[in-house]
Amino acid sequence: MSLLRNTASQATGKAGRSLRSWQTQVFVVSWITYAAFYFPRSSFSAAKVGILEDPTVNGTLTQGVLGNLDALYLAAYAVGQFTWGAVAEKWGTRVVVTGGMIFAGLAAVFMGFGSALWLFAPLMIVQGLAQATGWSALSKNIASFFTVKSRGRAMGMFSTSYAFGGLVAGPVAGFFAYSVFHDWRAAFFTGGVVILALLVVFVTLQRNNLRECGLPDIDVIDSDLPEAGEKTAEIEEGRRRMRLADLLAAARHDSMILRLGISYFLLKPARYAILLWGPVLVIQAMPEVDKLTAVLVPIAFGVAGVVAPIVCGWLSDTVFGARRVPVCVISLALLVGVLCLWGPMTATGSVPLVCGALALIGLAAYGADAMISGVAAVDFGTSRHAAGAAGFINGCGSVGAILGGLLPGYLGGGALFYGFAVAAAIAAAVLAPQWNRRPVSA
What we know:
Shape: globular
C-alpha cells in the first residue's frame, strides 16, 4: 500500500484522495482477474497425466497429440496477443477482457464433456484466443493508473498475478480431478467455474482509465502539465483514428519494442514448457510418483514466480533508476545456468532436488518474463501505446511459446532444457547492448 500512497502523492487535494482509491481498486481487480485466467488455462496441464493413463482414450490422445493441441492453442494465443492489444486501445479493457473471460470459461467447461480430438481441437483455439485478451488489456489498465516512476513496482506486483495463477490453478484443478471426483474431466469444469464466477467481480468494479473516474490522464499527472484538457483531447483523437495498421503502432513508436519482442520469443518456450507440461516432466523424471504428486511438485516453480516479479520490479525502480534492461539481462543469465542443471538434478530421482531445480528456474524465468512483457512493455510503449506494446511483445513471446507446448511432446527433458538454455543466452545478448536505456519519460 505504500506504493499506492507514494504514487498518489503526485496528485493533490480531493483528486489525490480519489486517485489513491481508484488505484487500489483497479490494481486489486486487475490482479484477481488475470490470476483467474490461469484456471481454465491450467486445466489441460492438470488433466494430461490422467488422459495419458485413461484406457478409453489410449491411441487417440497420445503424448504427441497433446503436444500438437498445445501448439494449436498457443498459435491461437499468439494471434490473439497481436490483435487484442490494438482492440483494447480502441474499445477499452472492460469490453475485451469480459469477452475473453466468458469464452475461456465456456471452452473449458465444454472440454470436460468429451475426449474426442475433433472436439478438443476447436475448443483449444477458442481458449487460446480468449486467454490472449487478458495480459495486454490489463497491463494497459496498470499503465493508465500508475506513473512511470512507480510503474516498475506496480507492474512487478501485478506480474505476480500470473505467477500466482500458475501456482494455484494446476494443483486446485488436480485436487478436484484426482482426489475429489477421480476423473480428469473435473479439471476442466473447475477452471471454467472459477473464471466465470470472478467475471462478476471484474464487470462490476473495473474501469478503463482515470478519465472514467473523473480524473485527468496519468500522463498529465506524470508530466505535471497544466494543459490537461489539450493532452486528453490529443489522446482521444489518436484513438479515434485507430486503423488496422495500428497493430504495429507500438513497434513503430520505439524500436526497443521490437528488441523486447525478439527476446521474449526466445524466453517464453522455457516457461510454457513447465507451465503446460510440468506434471508430465516430473513423472517422466520420477516414474515412481503418483499423479497428484506430479501435479503438486511444480508448485515450487510457481512459488518462486510469485517472488521474482516483486523483487525485480523493485530493483529496476530503485537500484537501476527505472532502467529495466539490467534486471532482464541478469535474470536471463541466471536462467541459462539453472536450465543446464535440470538434467543432473533430476537424474538423482530426489523430489526435493527436483523442487529446487524448478524453484531456481521459476525465479529466473519469471523475473525476466515480468520485466520484458510487463514493465518494459508499458514503459517503452507509454500509456498511449501500452496495450499495443504489451500485445506486440506478448504476441512475439506466444509464437515462441508454441515451441514450449509442442516440443515436450516429442523431446526428452535433457535435450529440451539445454535447448531452452541456448535460447535464453541469445535473448540476453539481444538486450545487453541496451543496458542503459530508459523510457523517454522516466
